[in-house]
Amino acid sequence: MTSERDVGFTEFVTANRGRLERAARLLTYGNEQDAEDLVQQALTKLYVHWPRVARGTGPLTYSYRILTTTFIDESRRAWRRHERTGSLPAETGVPAPDADTRATVLAALAAVPPRQRAVIVLRYLLDQSVEQTATLLHCSEGTVKSQSAKALATLRIRLADVHTDTTHHGGTS
Question: Which residues form the RNA polymerase sigma factor 70 region 4 type domain (predicted)?
Fold first, then answer.
């Protein structure tokens, strides 16, 4: 016998798992295995709180909060800290970048600390406002703005370094 809780949770997961997986792939800079693990951990935590979350007005927003918090917590574990490569999540309606561009962007994203990466993913890839991002990450709007600025600066430097290397070593840009 399936409970009303299980039906509601299953409907939510069916409708939103793709969004959560895309966000997780972006947070894990394209690592499919880590993204799947992250989504599973987040959904487990969400299920525990589902009766309260389901009564609220934003289960998806709450899911993003759990996802980013779990990602930040997991990234603090020493055994998770190693360089990874993977592919960017597919974007509906946007042409996929070529393999070199994808690898370059993932490498640059990997250089961004986890909390700053969470800000970048939420703000610029999931189109959350500064206020929404602050709420999701349990921090002030000023922190979101400063973390965003630092993350973008790191990305610019990394991407500029790659561009400089390819133009000085016979690569294309």
Answer: 105-155
